[in-house]
Design goal:
single chain; 186 residues; 2 domains; 2 helices; elongated
């Protein structure tokens, strides 16, 4: 392999490594699932694994035979943010008694690398119920359970990733032009 080609490949490898690390950060996760009463859950939220913080929660459940659906926009204030425990409520304020709460434990923690993670259906919390007390520290009936579900996120390179790659592409293009001028088109 020629020295120039080897150098070009090394530069390209370095840029790709930088690009991979540049995509780390909060991810938008999609949630889907099915309850034992025929209702479903769908929506999205942002989770930052570096800070264990949830934001932009927009999750909706549909009506089933056990309970009505609800729209979740907040992380439950009772508990610290956790990369394995989804715990959403419809509202925050004084007394949360009777407020709908959605909870599930994931089979593995969410990370900034994304992926698909299933619900732990054998865990103690995996369904939709109501808050049992003003601080929403536990469930109250009516309760329905998940029979399936997962969260999914994929990483999208930040715009800076493409900026990092531009010099490599320019180098490759100029090298090809130089070779073409020197040795003629083939």
């Amino acid at each position: 392999m020629s020295r120039s080609r080897s150098t070009t490949l090394k530069v390209l490898a370095a840029v790709l490594c930088l690009a991979a690390s540049a995509s780390a950060g909060p991810l938008t996760w999609s949630i889907t699932g099915l309850f034992n009463d025929g209702g479903t859950v769908s929506g999205s939220f942002v989770f930052d694994a570096d800070t264990n913080a949830y934001s932009s929660i927009d999750v909706t459940t549909t009506d089933g035979t056990i309970r009505s659906g609800a729209h979740y926009t907040l992380y439950n204030p009772c508990c610290p943010d956790d990369p394995t425990f989804l715990l959403f409520v419809t509202g925050v304020g004084g007394d949360l008694t009777g407020t709908p709460v959605l909870s599930t434990i994931l089979l593995s923690p969410m990370t900034n690398a994304g992926g698909t993670i299933g619900f732990d259906l054998a865990a103690q919390f995996h369904g939709e119920e109501s808050c049992n007390a003003p601080g929403c520290g536990g469930p109250a009936p009516p309760q329905r359970d998940f029979v399936s579900g997962s969260v999914t996120a994929s990483t999208v390179p930040e715009p800076g990733t493409f900026v990092l790659a531009l010099p490599v592409f320019a180098l490759i293009a100029s090298r090809r032009k130089w070779l073409s001028n020197r040795f003629g088109s083939r």
